[in-house]
C-alpha cells in the first residue's frame, strides 16, 4: 500500500484493525520531527474515532501554519502560506482551517452543494479566495465568457465575491496580453465595479510551443503593465536561474507570488539530490523538501520572494507532509533553522 494513503484508507479486509493499546502505542511512537505520524498507520483500518484522534495528533504536531502579510495592493491581508485547493477532500477542510489556512485557490469551481459548510459559516472577509477564469488564452477576445463565468460562480457557490480574478493559463504572446488591454482585464474591471472581485491576477503557465513567448518575456510584460496584483507561477526546484530572477523581480515590483507545480515539476529532480534533501531536514520526505526549498528562496536583499504555495492535499498523509513543510513547530522539531531564525 502507498504510504500516502495513510489514515484515509478505506477499511478493506486486507487491512489490520488495531486494539486501543496498539493504537495508542503507534500514536506515541512518532513525536514530530521529519517522520510522518500517518505513516505509522499504513496498512491499518482505523475506526472513525481512531481517525479523529490521529488527526488531532497530527494537527497538534503541525501547529499553526504561518501567515504572510500581503502588500498594500492586496489590502495587507494576512494570508496563510499554504493554500487550500478546490479539489481538497471535504474531510480535510476542517483540519486545514484549524491549522490556520485561510487562502483558497479555484473557489469558483465549487458548486453550491460542494462548497464546504465550514467555509460558508466563516465571515467572508476572513478568507482570501481566487477564481481562475478560463477564457485566457483559450478565447482571448471573449470578454463576455469571462464576465459570465465569474457571475455564475458567485451565484452557484454562495461566496459573495472573489478576492482575485485570476486569468487562468495566462497569455502566451505579447499581442494577446496587449499591455494589459485585453478581454480578461476588461471583464475584471466590470466585475470590480459591481463588487464581485477585488484584485487582478494571473496563473501564468509556460508556453509549450515555439510560437509562444518565453516565460520571462511574458512575466516581464505583466510586470511592466502595472496591472497584475498577484501572480501564480511554475516555481520549483527545477526552475532555472533566469526564471527565479524574474519571479524575484515581480515580487519586488509589488506583485504577490504564489508558487505552483512545486512537487509536480520539482520533486523528481530534487529526489536525485540526497544532500539537498538532508540540508532541508526532510530525509525520506521529498515533497516536504520541495516545498521547503521554495519557501526558503531569498532575493538579493536577503528577503523571501515566495508568499504562498499551492499544493495538492489528496489525503491526510499529504496534509502532514506538505503543510508540515512550512509549519514552524515542525521546523523546530526537524532542526530546519531557516524557518526559526
* Percentage of residues assigned to helices: 25-40%
Radius of gyration: 21 Å
Remind me, CATH topology of the largest domain?
TIM Barrel
Q: What's the CATH H-level superfamily name of the largest domain?
A: NADP-dependent oxidoreductase domain
Q: How does this structure look, described?
A:
The radius of gyration is 21 Å and the shape is globular. It has an 8-stranded parallel beta barrel with strand order 3-4-5-6-7-8-9-10, surrounded by 6 helices. It has a two-stranded antiparallel sheet with strand order 1-2. The chain has helices spanning 20-29, 48-62, 90-98, 117-120, 135-138, 143-157, 174-177, 183-193, 215-225, 241-252, 262-270, 274-279, 286-295, 316-323, 328-334; strands at residues 67-69, 78-80, 82-85, 103-105, 128-133, 162-169, 197-204, 230-234, 256-260, 308-310. Helix 11 (262-270) packs across helix 13 (286-295). It is of the alpha/beta class and 341 residues long. It is built from 15 helices and 10 strands. The longest helix is centred in the N-terminal third of the chain and has 15 residues, at 48-62. The model is unreliable at 1-7 (pLDDT under 50).
Please outline the helices and strands.
Layout: H1 20-29, H2 48-62, E1 67-69, E2 78-80, E3 82-85, H3 90-98, E4 103-105, H4 117-120, E5 128-133, H5 135-138, H6 143-157, E6 162-169, H7 174-177, H8 183-193, E7 197-204, H9 215-225, E8 230-234, H10 241-252, E9 256-260, H11 262-270, H12 274-279, H13 286-295, E10 308-310, H14 316-323, H15 328-334
Parallel strand pairs: 3-4, 3-10, 4-5, 5-6, 6-7, 7-8, 8-9, 9-10
Antiparallel strand pairs: 1-2
Helix pairs in contact: 6-8, 9-10, 11-13
Amino acid at each position: 500500500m502507498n504510504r500516502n494513503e495513510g489514515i484515509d484508507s478505506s477499511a478493506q479486509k486486507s487491512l489490520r484493525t488495531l486494539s486501543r493499546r496498539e493504537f495508542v502505542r503507534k500514536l506515541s511512537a512518532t513525536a514530530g520531527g521529519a517522520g510522518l505520524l500517518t505513516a505509522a498507520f499504513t496498512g491499518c483500518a482505523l475506526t472513525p474515532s481512531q481517525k479523529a484522534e490521529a488527526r488531532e495528533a497530527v494537527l497538534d504536531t503541525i501547529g499553526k501554519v504561518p501567515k504572510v502579510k500581503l502588500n498594500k495592493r492586496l489590502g495587507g491581508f494576512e494570508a496563510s502560506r499554504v493554500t487550500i485547493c478546490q479539489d481538497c477532500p471535504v474531510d480535510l477542510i476542517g483540519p486545514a482551517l484549524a491549522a490556520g489556512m485561510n487562502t483558497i485557490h479555484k473557489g469558483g469551481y465549487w458548486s453550491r452543494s460542494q462548497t464546504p459548510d465550514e467555509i460558508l459559516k466563516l465571515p467572508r472577509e476572513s478568507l482570501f479566495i481566487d477564481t481562475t477564469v478560463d477564457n485566457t488564452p483559450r478565447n482571448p477576445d471573449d470578454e463576455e465568457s469571462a464576465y459570465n463565468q465569474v457571475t455564475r460562480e458567485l451565484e452557484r457557490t454562495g461566496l459573495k465575491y472573489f478576492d482575485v480574478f485570476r486569468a487562468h493559463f495566462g497569455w502566451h504572446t505579447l499581442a494577446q496580453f496587449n499591455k494589459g488591454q485585453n478581454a480578461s482585464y476588461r471583464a475584471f474591471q466590470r466585475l470590480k465595479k459591481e463588487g464581485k472581485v477585488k484584485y487582478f491576477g494571473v496563473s501564468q503557465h509556460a508556453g509549450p510551443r515555439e510560437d509562444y513567448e518565453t516565460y520571462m518575456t511574458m512575466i516581464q510584460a505583466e510586470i511592466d503593465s502595472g496591472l497584475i496584483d498577484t501572480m501564480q507561477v511554475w516555481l520549483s526546484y527545477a526552475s532555472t536561474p533566469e526564471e527565479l530572477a524574474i519571479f524575484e523581480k515581480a515580487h519586488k515590483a509589488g506583485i504577490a507570488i504564489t508558487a505552483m507545480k512545486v512537487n509536480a515539476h520539482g520533486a523528481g529532480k530534487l529526489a536525485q539530490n540526497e544532500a539537498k534533501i538532508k540540508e532541508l531536514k526532510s530525509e525520506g520526505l521529498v515533497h516536504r523538501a520541495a516545498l521547503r526549498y521554495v519557501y526558503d528562496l531569498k532575493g538579493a536583499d536577503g528577503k523571501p520572494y515566495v508568499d504562498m504555495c499551492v499544493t495538492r492535499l489528496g489525503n491526510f498523509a499529504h496534509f502532514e507532509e506538505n503543510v508540515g513543510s512550512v509549519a514552524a513547530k515542525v521546523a523546530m522539531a526537524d532542526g530546519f533553522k531557516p524557518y526559526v531564525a
